[in-house]
Structure formats: structure tokens, C-alpha cells
Amino acid sequence: MLLIITPPFWPKMPPMGIGYLQAFLAKNNIDCDILDLNNIFYNLSSPELKKSWLVSCNTPLEENIFDLLQKNHPEEFKKLLGQILQYGTVGLSFFKSNINSTLKLARLLRSRNKNIKIIFGGPEIARQFFKTSGRFTKGIKSLADFIVAGEGEKSLLSYIKKPPLKNKTALFSELGNLDKLPFPVYKGLDMNSYPRKNSLSILFSRGCIRKCDFCSERLLYKKFRLRPVESVIEEIKHHKSRNKIEYFIFHDSLINGNLKKLEELCDKIIENFGSIKWEAQIAIRNDMSQVLLEKIKKSGCYNLFIGLESGCDRTLKKMNKGFTIKDALSFFKKLNGAGIFFGVSIIIGYPSETESDFMESLNFIIKNKSTIPKIEQINPFVYYDGINAKKVGNKDSLKRLNIFIKTIKSHGFKYTNAFIGNLIEKTS
Ligand code: B12
Ligand code: SF4
Predict the structure, then answer these.
(1) Nearest ligand (C-alpha, residue 345)
(2) 298, part of any domain
(3) Are 220 and 144 found together in one domain?
(4) How far apart are CA 300 and CA 380, in angstroms?
(5) Atom 1 of ligand 2 has which residue's CA nearest to it?
(6) Count of structural domains, the chain
(7) How far apart are CA 234 and CA 113, in angstroms?
(8) Statement to judge: residues 122 and 206 lie in one domain
(9) CA angle 165, 171, 173 (to 5 degrees)
(10) Residue with CA closest to ligand 1 atom 39
């Protein structure tokens, strides 16, 4: 079996989703290779193309990249296609960014070998499930032998062991726990071929403990589950020694879904390595003790990403965020006290957001500049299929977004340029 990810996808580090699937199949004695077409073609591309690869929601690139790469690198393309066609079963990993190129590849494979088994999975398949109320589009249904929405491990294994005669879809079928989930070792991938050579994606948990109304991420997994701390430590050891990894980027929806386990993780990191460099997303929770925050710092956390989303209590309540601005402020102060750096994300133009809610949110940010070290993301509200929030954001979203950006700039806030308003084209 071969698992493939097509461009454009975030190119800096190895793709963790198919890495997990490969490791899980290997544990079940099924040989599976990975072909990271995103990485291969990114490395072959010109500096200008590489630059536009990094722009998220780059629709023109997403629509044209398959044909462009075929044109720019005909020999490599032909060679890789021949390689893929050697396999009897091919699994394709769908993200919103690569849906066009992945469908084009599937069509090409099908036209060259009508007997090849094609399996679709990945977050965009989950979105397509919600978008079409579970029916999927004709294009997806006609090309795939099997469609997996949600977590892939269990469904993929059961398909390979015994392909179902009738049912073509597996929907959100999850492992009961992650106790025996093997970690990705990326067998066959050249770890040195990724731009951030010393950094790696890692996961401590899957799912989320909260249910924010605008969130699409919580639709991917039904249950919140954690990996055993020992397994995470083994993974860090493995990649530190084998691949000289120094930075571990936790891609969990939130790192503090279970405080006891988080403390155990920090303890074990300190015990085994002194410290490692790590970053993660964290939810605002005031039940975190000072001791835990100090351990987070001591174990080497250099950055946390926090979904604040608004500085107005009415909007936070409508979003079902589960905290107030008072909670947020007290949490930020605790992080500052422990010397932990963090950045926050903000949503502008939430469906219920009035002009005064917006101003309240902006004023909260400005007023607390000395407490909030960085604005990490500012995005207009965007509807995502399957979420609870209303479909249409406030009509003044973009106007407010510009005011917000201008104001934080004028107040000298630290912010990440790449993520400022990066969803604009979707809402305009
Ligand atoms: C870390 C992260 C990032 C990081 C790193 C990017 C990366 N791709 O690794 C950064 C910050 C750069 C980022 C950026 C963006 N991201 Co992001 N990100 C994530 C996050 C939090 C974790 C990804 C991850 O590693 N998951 C863990 C692995 C194990 O899961 P997985 O890849 O989904 O794979 C599992 C299943 O999907 C399935 N599966 C996957 N492939 C296949 C294939 C087959 C054949 C089968 C059977 C199963 C299968 O099985 C796997 C194991 O169970 C997810 C949300 C989440 N919790 O997953 C969003 C997510 C992937 N991001 C998302 C988005 C929208 C973006 C941005 C467009 C945001 C923006 N506005 O800029 C950009 C795009 C960047 C780019 N150019 O690609 C969306 C994608 C939605 C979609 N439909 O594709 C997600 C799902 C969040 C959401 N909104 O729901 N992101
Ligand atoms: S805490 Fe974050 S991941 Fe969890 S539901 Fe809310 S927005 Fe989504």
C-alpha cells in the first residue's frame, strides 16, 4: 500500500497524519510506503513558487499547481506516476488546500489502471461529509473505492484486512483509546529534505474537551483521548537521536485537556532530558496550578498559542468559549508570572458581534497590551460546514478587521504577519 499527500500542503515538516497511518499499519504487519509529493515538488520549485506555497488559502495556486508541476517537471512527474502505479492500493490524504490536485491525481491513476484501489481520507473528506450532509460529491464517490471521514487508523486497517462488499464509507470510527497507538517514524522519508530540519510535529492527544460553536476542529474527532506519557517520551527520544530533532511542535487541539497527564508529561521531560524546546496550543483554564505552569516552563516550553477569539464577554458567551475576559486576563497573568511566552488569536465579525462588542474586544486588547505578549492570528469569521455558528458573519467583518490590524500596529503589538487576515479572500 502507498499513502500519498499532494501539494500544496504545509511543506516545512513531515506530514504527521499519514505518518501515523504508516506506523499503525506496520504494527499490524502491513507494509505501507509514504510518498510525500508535496515535499518532492516543493524542493524542486523556484523560490517564487515556494513563497506562494506558504500563503494559506491561495486559491489560484491550489487550483493550478497540479498542471503547473506536470508542466514544469515532466520527467520527474512521469517517474513518480510510474512509481505510484506499481502499488495495488493507494491512500490519498485530502486537505482543503490540496483537494484539486488530489482529485486530479486520483483521476489520472484511475485512467491508467482501472483496477487500482483508491482510498480517500483526511480532514477535507470530513468537511465534504458535512458539506454534502453525508452524501459526498459525485466526483469523490466515483473515484474512491473507500472513503474515510475522521480518524483513519481503525477504518483503514479494517478495509485492508477485509474490503467491505457494499459500504464504501467509514464515518468517524475511532480507536477507543490511544494506549497502543504507535508513533510515526516516517519510514522511507528523507527527514533531511524538509525545510525545518530540526523540528517535528508531535501529538499528545486527539480531540478536544470543549465545544466552541465556531470550531471545525472539534468535528474531526468525537472523543478526547491522550497518548501514554511514556510513548510520547519514547517518540521524543527516537527523533532526537535518529533525526537530530530539537524543536517539538505539539499539534494537539489543546495541550491541557488533562492537567494531571500534562504535569506527568512535563515531569518526564524534565527527568529524561532536562528540557526540550516545545510549543503547543493551550486552552484558557484557571484550574492550572502555579506548580504546573512552572513545570511547563522548566520542561522547555517556549511558546503557547491561545484561542482567546474575543475581548468581549457577550461574544465569548455566544461562541460558547467556556471562559470570560476576567478568566482570560487572570490566566495570562499566571503565564506571565511563570515566564511563559504566548500569543492569542482573534476572530472578527462573529455573527452576533455588534459594533460595540467589536470595540469592546479591541479596547480589551489595547488595554492589556502589557499582559498579552503577541497577537498570533486575526481572522474574519468564516463559516465551516458542520459547525454550530450561523452561516454568515457580520457584514462589517472586513472593515473591522482592517481597523483592528491598523490599531494593533499603531500600538506596537507583536504579531505574525503571515496569519493576519489570511482568510480574507474567502469572505470577500
Ligand atoms: C498543526 C496544524 C496546522 C499547522 C501545521 C500544518 C500541518 N498541516 O501540519 C499550521 C499552523 C501551519 C496550519 C496551517 C493551516 N491550517 Co491547520 N491544522 C493543524 C492541526 C491543528 C493539526 C494537524 C495535525 O497534524 N493533525 C494530526 C494528524 C494525526 O491528523 P490528520 O493529518 O488529520 O490525519 C488523520 C486523519 O485525518 C486521517 N487521514 C489523513 N490522511 C488520510 C489518508 C487516508 C487514505 C486515510 C484513510 C485517512 C487519512 O487519518 C489520520 C490519522 O488518524 C489541524 C487540526 C487537527 N486537530 O487535526 C488543523 C487543520 C489541518 N488546519 C486547517 C486549516 C484550514 C489550515 C489553514 C488553511 C489555516 C489558515 N487559515 O491559514 C493553514 C493551511 C496551511 C497550509 N498551507 O497547508 C484545517 C484543514 C481543514 C481541511 N478541510 O482541510 C484543520 C483540519 C483545522 C480545521 N479547521 O478543522 N495548520
Ligand atoms: S477549545 Fe479550541 S479546539 Fe476546542 S472546541 Fe474550542 S476552538 Fe475548538
Answers:
(1) 2
(2) yes
(3) no
(4) 33
(5) 210
(6) 2
(7) 41
(8) no
(9) 100
(10) 122
Identify the domain containing residue 102 by its residue range. 2-171
Give CA torsion, residues 148, 152, 153, 158, to 10 deg: 0
* pLDDT tens, position by position, 210-244: 999 999 999 999 999 999 999 999 999 999 999 99
Q: What angle do CA 48, 52, 54 make, to 5 degrees?
A: 120
Distance 215 CA to ligand 2 centre (A): 6
Residues 228-254 as b or e (16 or more Cβ within 10 Å = b): bbebbbebbeebbeebebebbbbbbbb
- Cα 201 from Cα 278, distance rounded (Å): 10
Say whether both 393 and 252 belong to one domain: yes
Q: Which atom of ligand 1 is nearest to the CA of 216?
A: 90
State whether 124 and 10 are in the same domain.
yes
Four-residue CA torsion sign, 306, 412, 424, 355: positive
- Domain shared by 204 and 165, yes or no: no
DSSP SS3 for 247: strand
Find the mean pLDDT for residues 354-377.
97
Instruction: Provide the pLDDT for residue 425.
Output: 54
Looking at the structure, do residues 254 and 381 belong to the same domain, yes or no?
yes
Q: For the ranges 49-58, 108-117, 305-314, which has the lowest average pLDDT?
A: 49-58
DSSP state of 417: G
